[in-house]
Specification:
single chain; alpha/beta; 7-stranded parallel sheet; 7-stranded mixed sheet; 10 helices; 16 strands; globular; binds NADP nicotinamide-adenine-dinucleotide phosphate
Length: 343
């Protein structure tokens, strides 16, 4: 079977990590790269990745020209968190009959927040006989797919609670900025209010995915206000320093309400200097299920893995918009990628 031909759409922090992972894998080859950043367009991908071996892949801002020549099977799309921004980018890939895996958080489960765009994407994907999946570590796995999988052993479920606590010091700089690390409390509140920083995106999508998997008809999903976590000491990483009294990151909660009762609670905390890091899932039911991953899964490593491991599943998936709950049970694709595609 021939190699899977991949286009990178977005070569920012995550796109570069995915590129490096793909370069080490058998059965897959990068055949093009797209980005609009002025400091990237026209350069060889190797320079942006910071590797010495020239790859002969020039970063282009012209999606149509590149995709009409590249004969790509799949695009790895990593540009933005919001479907309103990414819709036209994803559509421009799909009209070339190329499949898409995207880290766009809202795409992970868009039926609740963006039902119209979700329907349009599904229609387009079917028209061009292609597939689109939104995935990543969170949303995409830790607070939804993994939770859904654990419910498989339950006969009854009263309530689900998921907590993720991570030390953002080890994460990529765009993530540290997104959670407001290093800002004063006033700057944090203003930037959140003006949507200059987004905080974590995906809690509503994760709750909607869990509820739909269980066929729970929620009355509503409540996303609570984003709270800054204020550092009580000087903490930092190689990229960012946080003084005592400054914002180290944030805490966000969201709830799924059914028949006036909280049935799902997601509690997300990411801040520089968090001492205890974990991913904890508690299912109150028959039986009770308690699972704790400690330390928490590293978000950037996990995202790269989720995306690369999804390639064979998306190649084999039917046309349309698919989500993690529609695909086969996820697992690592450690060997030559083509081994997971051929039957
Ligand atoms: N689901 C998950 O678990 C998960 C995990 C990690 C990341 N993510 C999401 O994945 C996305 C990428 O993250 P990142 O840290 O790599 O961000 P990033 O460093 O900002 O990279 C995004 C890249 O895409 C480029 N870009 C923006 N709009 C474009 C367009 N229309 N066409 C082509 N290129 C475009 C950007 O260029 P400019 O710099 O010029 O804008 C930048 O080079 C973010 O939305 C992030 O939140 C999700």
């Amino acid at each position: 079977m021939k190699n899977v031909r991949v286009i990178l759409f977005g070569v920012g922090a995550v796109g570069c990590l995915i590129a490096k992972s793909l370069l080490e894998k058998d059965g897959v080859e990068i055949v093009g790269a797209i980005d609009i950043a002025k400091d990237k367009v026209g350069r060889d991908l190797s320079e942006v990745l910071g590797i010495s071996k020239k790859l002969g892949i020039q970063i282009s801002a012209d999606t149509d020209t590149l995709l009409s020549k590249a004969e790509a099977d799949i695009a790895i799309h990593t540009t933005s968190s919001f479907l309103k921004d990414t819709f036209s980018q994803i559509a421009s890939i799909m009209k070339h009959g190329v499949k898409v895996i995207s880290t766009c958080e809202e795409l992970t489960y868009p039926y609740y927040t963006e039902p119209k765009l979700a329907k349009e994407l599904d229609t387009l994907a079917k028209k061009y006989k292609t597939t689109v999946l939104g995935t990543g570590i969170n949303p995409g796995f830790l607070m939804d797919t993994l939770v859904i999988t654990l419910t498989a052993v339950c006969q009854k479920i009263e309530r689900i609670q998921v907590a993720r606590v991570m030390n953002a010091a080890t994460r990529r700089l765009p993530f540290q900025k997104k959670i407001g690390a290093g800002l004063t409390v006033e700057e944090f509140k203003r930037k959140i209010a003006e949507k200059q920083i987004t905080g974590h995106v995906g809690l509503e999508q994760s709750i909607a995915m869990i509820a739909d998997a269980l066929a729970w008809k929620l009355d509503r999903i409540i996303v609570e206000s984003v709270e800054p976590v204020i550092s009580d000491r000087a903490v930092g990483s190689k990229d960012i320093g946080v003084k005592a009294g400054e914002v180290a990151g944030l805490r966000q909660k969201a709830k799924g309400i059914m028949k006036n009762r909280e049935v799902i609670l997601l509690d997300f905390q990411a801040y520089v200097g968090a001492e205890e890091e974990y991913d904890a899932i508690t299912i109150e039911g028959i039986p009770n299920v308690k699972q704790k991953i400690q330390p928490c899964v590293h978000g950037d490593i996990g995202t790269v893995a989720m995306v690369v491991n999804a390639i064979p599943r998306v190649i084999k998936a039917p046309s349309g918009l698919v989500t993690m709950k529609d695909l086969l049970v996820p697992s690592a694709a450690l060997e030559d990628i083509t081994k997971y595609i051929s039957d």
